[in-house]
Amino acid sequence: MIIVMKRYEAKDKVEQIIEKLKKAGMQPVPLFGVERTVIAVIGDERILDIQQLASMDGVEKVMPVLKPYKFVSRESHPENSIIDVAGVRIGGKKAIVMAGPCSVEDEQQIVETANSVKEAGASILRGGAFKPRTGPYDFQGLKEEGLKLLAKARDATGLPVVTEVMQPKYITMVAKYADMLQVGARNMQNYDLLRDLGRCKKPVLLKRGMSSTYKELLLAAEYIVANGNPNVVLCERGIRTFVAETRNTLDLNMVPLVKELSHLPIIVDPSHGTGIRSLVGSMAKAGIAAGADGLMVEVHPRPDKAKSDADQTISLAHFKTLMQELRAVTQAVGREL
Amino acid sequence: MIIVMKRYEAKDKVEQIIEKLKKAGMQPVPLFGVERTVIAVIGDERILDIQQLASMDGVEKVMPVLKPYKFVSRESHPENSIIDVAGVRIGGKKAIVMAGPCSVEDEQQIVETANSVKEAGASILRGGAFKPRTGPYDFQGLKEEGLKLLAKARDATGLPVVTEVMQPKYITMVAKYADMLQVGARNMQNYDLLRDLGRCKKPVLLKRGMSSTYKELLLAAEYIVANGNPNVVLCERGIRTFVAETRNTLDLNMVPLVKELSHLPIIVDPSHGTGIRSLVGSMAKAGIAAGADGLMVEVHPRPDKAKSDADQTISLAHFKTLMQELRAVTQAVGREL
Amino acid sequence: MIIVMKRYEAKDKVEQIIEKLKKAGMQPVPLFGVERTVIAVIGDERILDIQQLASMDGVEKVMPVLKPYKFVSRESHPENSIIDVAGVRIGGKKAIVMAGPCSVEDEQQIVETANSVKEAGASILRGGAFKPRTGPYDFQGLKEEGLKLLAKARDATGLPVVTEVMQPKYITMVAKYADMLQVGARNMQNYDLLRDLGRCKKPVLLKRGMSSTYKELLLAAEYIVANGNPNVVLCERGIRTFVAETRNTLDLNMVPLVKELSHLPIIVDPSHGTGIRSLVGSMAKAGIAAGADGLMVEVHPRPDKAKSDADQTISLAHFKTLMQELRAVTQAVGREL
Amino acid sequence: MIIVMKRYEAKDKVEQIIEKLKKAGMQPVPLFGVERTVIAVIGDERILDIQQLASMDGVEKVMPVLKPYKFVSRESHPENSIIDVAGVRIGGKKAIVMAGPCSVEDEQQIVETANSVKEAGASILRGGAFKPRTGPYDFQGLKEEGLKLLAKARDATGLPVVTEVMQPKYITMVAKYADMLQVGARNMQNYDLLRDLGRCKKPVLLKRGMSSTYKELLLAAEYIVANGNPNVVLCERGIRTFVAETRNTLDLNMVPLVKELSHLPIIVDPSHGTGIRSLVGSMAKAGIAAGADGLMVEVHPRPDKAKSDADQTISLAHFKTLMQELRAVTQAVGREL
User: Fold this and answer.
1) Which candidate among A178, A265, A317, C106 keeps its CA 20 to 30 Å from the CA of B20?
2) Whole-model pTM?
3) Which helix (H) or strand (E) holds C85?
């Protein structure tokens, strides 16, 4: 950690801080420059309260040197992690596609979709039973009934199932039916939920919050891992920017950069990342080319009648074509689909 | 609702949409322009699924005319709402100041703060018992022990207490001790929490999410009100932008504009809105001048030792001076403190 | 155009607006709904002043139906445009790579780079002679001397040259040496520059401003085309968002969406779009997979010694490898390199 | 400057960097921590190329300690600067209001406005003669004819005149008529313009770019001052964020923070900062309460007929009322109007 003092600060202020750091077991090294004094701190700064130091008299700013997360950091675990979801391995050579409707609506819809996406090459079935909706008058999902239908579709196809869990009290129920639990973007910083998912051992799909930095995403993952569950897959699903022409701005820079910082697998959601059906295919390909370990795509037998996210959902036929196109891109970057 | 068709769309696509609208009980009026056909829809469009319509063949875009919220809209309730928090009225002529530490730390800290801020003119005591923290290794609050200390500080001073509730299962516990329940920025779209707070009757302080539009904030409030609890106070606490020099960007435009759209009171949090102690006073005054019904300010007897948010917390003496300065600004805009 | 009146507005206000619209040659159709009156306007709304209408008494909002640009719109020109830069065709089946240093530094540097990128498969040489720099104490470019060196490198290799022009008075000078004139992101809304580039006939590379919407980018292109120069290539180079871990957020959604809206070619700049050398390759591939017509990449013989943008510049060897990898991705999306 | 090395970097890489720093006349101090080596650099780091260092082998990141600007920094000039605009002093106890139409349209309009705003208490007349417009088909201003009308309005009222200059070649012409030259938000990083304004001695009103950080704004001011013109007034006019309900997000945090960093005066433009007529008054008051040295307000005799910015322009009567309200707020913060 580096502590920059305000210009021309009296020596006693520097000494107070040095005193405080020594008491905390650190080894402070003051460096007296022409304009400013800087205190370099040797030791594991993560045990210090940066804000307290920053608010001390005479301090201009505090610059941490170490990263605030440990378990999810690539420094602590240089190899890529591979997460096993009921036999499907995410993070290895094979890129994994999760596909299915935004909301589970009825048995016919979900089973038809499951059969079709499986045939096209998808490895995991997605579908929402509990739906976080911006408006209180929107369709909120079939809840446990929806989970049962997802389980039926899994039985019919063998595809593992991923679905969202919205609060701690439903973790047990959702884990009974699903193979992977999804944390939605709006819940990425719901720390009680993250902590309880850490105690559950099922794999977790952690979607990036719509205004989260990479550091915050990795700290959210750290909550889960530090509480006992190392099976976390990250998901880039678009961030909120000034661009109003798309629902979100898909931030693919995140893929190669977070892969440098962390060993966790990362998938890309081009459906939420664009919000526009005609862009889903291009951005799915771009996600794979950027190095993602997989994709999550919203697919529906009759997109025009979907009860949620209709305008970013593609049809079964469209998905089939997309999978063929993706195969070529996947190979071009040295992987398989 | 206005439906804009793609350029030169065949008449049968227009008719399909007109058919669908009629079935839903609407009165569609097609207008054939030179380049495009537009369908104006008369009727309460809120019962339609905009995304489904937008995803129909031939449709370029759908533009809603009505607002998606009802109860919180000023159109449905032209007078300002006044929310009563254990006798303190928010939304009337008097601007209300809520003050206290970020986290409750011990009895001495919270009672000393309560006495001091009361003397300086604050009307409500704030203090965090459950703390949402970005990092899993940060101090997470005293939990129920903290609630008890808040209740003690209330008994000692008579100040009503506001504190955050982080998930549905704690609502009953927090409501036992607190006079007003706070929804933090990270939870503004935690819909289960909002719904259950609607069933509880205690006043709710709803903080704006850090990437929420005004519409989303009002829809979050609508969740609470539509579920039975009209006692909602909104809070502007800064949004996330590209500006890295401050913790958040305090969006004071929100105050006068949301006051046009809604009858709910609005307060401003200059502590989170800046993240920098030396800016709190200026932005508190700016908030009042912009028309806010009150403020929420982080105050601590020894800011340098605060266990959270140290660098945006002001001292008891600083708060006292600020209240004097605020008095003049409040009067200048025709209100009182 | 659709004009939404405020709730329960008196009929005479509606009539005033109808009167005004008729005088302007429009055909207004008032639609009286339950809560609101809406006026649909038939005719070419682009001749109306939307802000004036929006500011009239009784108007809540004005929603345009037509797009504000014409020449660059795909509606007016359904086929892809192909722009010829001294024999290199941008916008066709072949994806075009522009490569070279951020700044031209000396003859050896630019000629060595030109030879090497040509051999690796680049089609156009880039290099800055006039450099817009955030700080007044940074290296500002070699100016005309740099242009002469670029011309030498073209003579040595046959590669056409693209370089930035920063203000109208230098257009003639830059056009004397360069084959394509670049408008930098900071100048995307320098309307005098755009207008004068419209009068010049050399192809223009128009970089998106760092906080520009797609509409603003297309309007900037419209300035050039409407003034007589149809040879415009657009460039996505990253936008400014809250993400501080990368220099910019590369917005690849822009590629497929702007291709729907416009017939102009689009290239992607992964160097500025990331600001980080190790991400350039991944995002170059992602750009091609998203459908870009080409790339612009910063390359330098000794990146560590580059006088500007050192940390996003790749070496000649790195570029060579990247071109091989790009070849596979280009083919996977049905194009060639 | 602090250089953080990658984890477990070999000693020879550290030595290479130390060597390079010594050659540049710096005094490097390596600190060997448990996980990482950090090199603290004593000396004026502003002569080093941060990007070059950051791109060297083994370096993780470079953290500058000193600010990149000198002349505009409060450290180099602790007292507030007071800028004299033809006798009107900006930056002192008196808050200064600049008012007038977005565009100069005709003699009657500008003279009527000038008389009225002067009577209401404005100190400087604003009006656009050269207009940067997003669309090529919008009204672009009366150009020199508009400048002449501004000069007439000054002669009629004695109010100094501020107007925008859009490119270097017009500086001489605009300076002939105007008392203060405005750099628009879109030109804040037009470095040729800034440099030439530095050589001109007329006071400059520098508007913040819509996606500029505080550092970039101060560096833009540094360009002007470093080239010889110390008479710069900064202007907060709103930034671009995800909030679509207002034209811009007025970032009032900027006022108290940039006042800490710099000695230059700062004014606030609530017209562009909101884009909505009914919000201008509230945000003007908020700007003054935040500590601004003045305001810039768009005023027009008939706002509904204004040729540009109609929906954010207030009427002469509205301006008169606003000035009365502002008087109270100005006094409440210890200043005068």
Assistant:
1) A317
2) 0.93
3) strand C83-85
